[in-house]
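User: Teach me something about this protein's shape.
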Amino acid sequence: MSKVSTSNKNKIIAKTFFGTENVCAQELSELGAQNIEILNRAVSFDYDKKILYKVNLWSRTAVSFLSGIADFNFKTQEEFYHRMYEIDWNSHFSVKKTILIKAVINRTSFSNSHYVSMKSKDAIVDYFRDKFGERPSVDSENPDIKIDVYLNGENCIVSIDSSGAPLFKRGYRKIQGEAPINEALAANLLIMGGYKAEIPLIDPMCGSGTFAIEAALMATNTAPGLLRKQFSFHNWNDFDAALWDDLVNEAKGLINNNPFKITAFDIDSKSIDGARQNILRAGMLGKINLSRQDFFKFDPPRPPGMVIINPPYGQRLKPENLLQFYNDIGKRLKFNYPGYKAWIISSEIEAIHKISLKPIVKHKLMNGKLDCRFDGYSLYEGSRKVLSPES
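Assistant: First, the predicted structure itself:
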């Protein structure tokens, strides 16, 4: 009968988005992560408590960070239960903490992931009951401890989620539009597009303001984790409050007031109201030029600059003629944004072709459950021929 191994204890897994793994890996390298390995929708690196705290505080591109605590092989479901029971759970968290188990299965003898979660919960509860005479409670809404169980065939990897709520929940977006883009995905796209603080940025279909806010956080060197009040590792037995306070204070001291220019607008007044509230919560009010404008009537400043667009996909937002709408976007960019770099994300591949501009780069990625393309365009900088809305 196989025994529980702690070899996985030396690794941290960063969960990210399909198509953004390289961006996440580069960011983690810059933050000091060691022995980085790129996986599918994830990046692994060596465990270190300071690095674990630091990446949770600073990462713009990851969704969560899992800290491995054990891995084992099993033959039967009964053996799986016993291997889970053998893990020294009390070394990680106390019986007073609430728990939630999330299971992912791949080619295993278990029938479904919910059953694996229940079996894991039984083992953990029995461990504490036998050892202390009481059991931890399960909280499916806001648990203190989130446990990740991954089964691949007869192998099981057990991790504890150090982040808690997904890291894209920065804390500033209380108001969202009809088709919002994930905060961490927005940061990934800005980095992929080459955004820097010295580059003027225009988001002409800003919705709830996510691109603009993420860009402002980058421009001011504000750690996104500063906007959050809680991480799950705060509930771990070995939580080092002094180390965490040092990292937080250091991050606050690195915020800068260097000038930058971000222009965000939308034709929908309700979206602008929501974006303004989100910008206020992010502490960026007055630093982002926000207004109600029509992209097809707006005349941008002289180049250089970067424009990033998350147009309607035809899913929740349905323009009367989606293909014509995308064609009009392409025309507007071609004639009114010479010298700019333009980036567009969409799941409507046929509509993207109607942009009628030749992309210099194409990225395949996922926005939620949607297969998307993120295309970049280098707009010709020649004579500036302004295209009127009537044209």
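Now, about its shape. The chain has a mean pLDDT of 92. The two ends are 75 Å apart (CA to CA). If you'd like, I can walk through any region in more detail.
User: That's plenty for now, thanks!
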